[in-house]
Design a protein that fits this description.
The protein is α+β, with helices and mostly antiparallel strands. A hairpin with a 2-residue loop joins strand 23 and strand 24. The strands form 11 sheets. Strands 31-30-29-28-27-26-25-32 form an 8-stranded parallel beta sheet. Helix 2 runs parallel beside helix 3. Helices cover 15% and strands 35% of the residues. The two termini are 52 Å apart. It folds into 4 domains: 139 residues, Galactose-binding domain-like (Jelly Rolls, Sandwich); 90 residues, Sandwich (Immunoglobulin-like), CATH 2.60.40; 296 residues, Alpha-Beta Barrel (TIM Barrel); 71 residues, Immunoglobulin-like, CATH 2.60.40.10.
Length: 643
């Protein structure tokens, strides 16, 4: 059967103008310069060299070299011979290297994230980290094996039909050339979460009946079966693959929103970038686990995984925890005529490699493509090609795209995919939060049969900036709270919106930005780049979505307050909150998520909020003059966009 050997240690890394260093993977050379907003952000070609002994394999086996993420273009050279070239920094690719292996093997990977006009992304509000930032492996398989040569796919796909309490799980497997020539056949079994086999069948394409099916039901009950396919040759098992199976139905309705398994299931969640402070996109499984745990804490039920293919490990986490996922390719910000082939290849890889994730319900075709490319005929044609490709490759899911804020309701690009969402920052880049109401209500009235969502909304926030009089552009915690309170109420009034995705769950690197006194960053996250600080707005989402009882005092970082009468805001998902100041009761309020208390401020004040069994504490104090550290300094940016 298959054997996997990781090649992660002892790589010699060379960057032009720097001394060679020995390091372990995962790695990016932009872990610092891609996050500090300086002029030293370097894009170009670097090399990774290593040696490895011939793996253990027999004459009846083949050896593949497998990469799970190299950004953005890779040329793989083994024993002096170029064996693979790949354009696209976020997907898996592999190559059969059996015939050129030696007892001792020298491997060089030339990795290029330089500016060009053919590989996406090239223009976007995030850092394009260069490097080998996911796992590299040697994969040993029998000569007769499941297909490994089709767009980095797993060689197996499934889909399911539900009929009342029962279901039929369709499993299709794909064979490599030698397996087909050998007349191999496939045995498929489906097991429940406890490992009990519930159905069996033989064949490349089988139907597995499941009585009293246990549905994959979002965050409430993300139940997974397991399909296993065994390749038989001359009566012997020679290869085996498998995938988790989530049986669910979903649909979108232009008047009623998203439905999961026949019930209304409003999709309310966040967008996620995969980078972390100090390490860029070279994440470990622990980093992914932390991100998922934080997202789950606020009670989100959907994630838009922007703006590229994410790690298979994170998609698995979405399956496991019931997150409904929007998956997309990095066709973003501009249409490059020479990049059409790359958009198609990246879409094929996205769909083939991720077809088996029940969490994914839609394929994202593009993001903000009209920001620099208007109603260009070639661009529109490419969108139609991609949209048709998605339907051809996967008729079980719908297509979507994210429209740029200035892309008007009548723009042709907004009417290509099955549903549409908008990146609207009304109340941040444009003054007036009520403009959200006007814009969405107009679109819904004009196109009542068009499913509409928000793919991005949000505002910049630095947790060190504070004011008692928040206003647009000040980047204070207090304005971010007001903005998100408004948006959550706005969405509640419009259940027809099929999905809403906050931009962003975490602060992330954006090399072109210079804002808030921390250049090279987008600060719209609910959590800081290092994942250490949950901003106050984090807790309004927790109050709105989470069932876990809690109470939270806002403004805990706004300690120095130059006012004799101050307002204390408390977030909770409990119906009643009592506030104490220095042990004395201020008031008890009945309310819904947002509780505000007025109290006189004189000297040091210890606050305590009590909501049922939940308690929280914070300290504030009166000062005679405003603390200058709380104010955005001149030259630190005022909330302008990266363009």
């Amino acid at each position: 059967m298959r054997k996997t050997e990781k090649l992660m240690q002892g790589w010699t890394f060379r960057q032009p103008g720097h001394e060679a260093v020995v390091l372990d993977l995962p790695h990016t050379w932009n872990a610092k310069d891609g996050q500090d907003g300086g002029n030293d952000y370097w894009r170009g070609t670097c090399t990774y060299d290593n040696t490895f002994p011939r793996p253990v394999y027999t004459a009846d086996e083949r050896v593949y070299l497998q990469f799970h993420g190299v950004n953005a273009s890779a040329n793989v050279i083994l024993n002096g011979q170029s064996v693979a070239k790949h354009d696209g920094g976020y997907s898996t690719f592999r190559v059969d290297v059996t015939d050129i292996l030696a007892d001792e093997n020298a491997i060089t990977v030339e990795v290029d994230n330089s500016v060009n006009d053919k590989v996406y992304p090239q223009k976007a509000d995030f850092t394009f980290y260069g490097g080998i930032y996911r796992d590299v492996e040697l994969l040993v398989v029998n000569r007769a094996h499941f297909d490994l040569d089709h767009f980095g796919g797993p060689g197996i796909k499934y889909w399911a039909d539900v009929n009342g309490k029962d279901a039929t799980v369709h499993v299709r497997t794909f064979l490599g050339e030698e397996a087909r020539a050998a007349g191999a056949y496939v045995k498929v079994c489906l097991a429940d979460a406890e490992g009990n086999v519930v159905a069996r069948a033989d064949g490349l394409s089988v139907e597995l009946p499941v009585a009293n099916v246990h549905l994959w039901d979002g965050i409430d009950d993300p139940y997974l079966y397991r399909a296993t396919a065994t390749l038989m040759c001359d009566g012997k098992a020679v290869d085996e693959i498998g995938c988790n199976v989530g049986v669910r139905t979903f649909k979108v309705d232009p008047q009623k929103g998203f439905f999961l398994n026949g019930r209304s299931y409003p999709l309310r969640g966040v967008c996620r970038h995969q980078d972390w402070k100090g390490i860029g996109n070279a994440l470990s499984t622990e980093h992914h686990d932390t991100d998922m745990a934080i997202i789950r804490e606020i009670g989100a039920n959907t994630i838009r995984l922007a703006h590229y293919q994410h790690s298979q490990y994170f998609y698995d986490l979405c399956d496991k925890y019931g997150m409904v996922v929007w998956a997309e390719i990095p066709y973003i910000s501009e249409h490059m005529p020479n990049g059409r082939e790359n958009t198609i290849s990246q879409m094929k890889e996205l769909i083939v490699q991720n077809f088996n994730h029940p969490s994914i319900v839609c394929w994202g075709v593009s993001n903000e493509i009209t920001i620099s490319t208007k109603d260009n005929k070639d661009m529109l044609d490419n969108h139609h090609v991609l949209n048709d490709l998605c339907h051809e490759m996967d008729p079980t899911r719908f297509t979507t795209l994210a429209c740029y804020a200035m892309c008007g309701p009548f723009n042709k690009v907004a009417h290509i995919t099955d549903v549409v969402s908008w990146n609207l920052y009304l109340g941040w880049y444009v003054p007036g939060m009520p403009l959200n109401d006007a814009w969405v209500d107009f679109f819904h009235a004009k196109y009542p049969n068009r499913c509409l969502g928000y793919s991005e909304y949000g505002c910049e926030c630095m947790p060190n900036l504070h004011t008692s009089h928040p206003k647009r552009g000040d980047q204070s915690e207090e304005y971010q709270c007001l903005y998100n309170e408004y948006m959550l109420k706005f969405f509640d009034k419009r259940p027809f919106m099929w999905a809403t995705h906050l931009w962003n769950m975490f602060d992330f690197a954006a090399d072109a930005r210079n804002q808030g006194g921390e250049p090279g960053m987008n600060h719209k996250g609910l959590v800081t780049f290092d994942r250490k600080t949950r901003k106050d707005s984090f807790y309004i989402y927790k109050a709105w979505w989470s069932k876990e009882p809690f109470v939270y005092i806002c403004g805990r970082r706004y300690v120095d307050r130059p006012e004799k009468m101050t307002t204390v805001k408390v977030y909770s998902n409990q119906p009643s909150v009592t506030l104490y100041a220095n042990g004395e009761k201020v008031a008890t309020q009945q309310g819904d998520k947002v509780f505000t208390f007025k109290l006189p401020l004189n000297g040091e004040v210890k606050l305590e909020a009590v909501a049922g069994e939940c308690r929280d504490e914070a300290n504030i104090r009166y000062v005679s003059a405003p603390n200058p550290a709380y104010k955005l300094k001149k030259g630190d940016g005022n909330g302008g966009n990266w363009t």
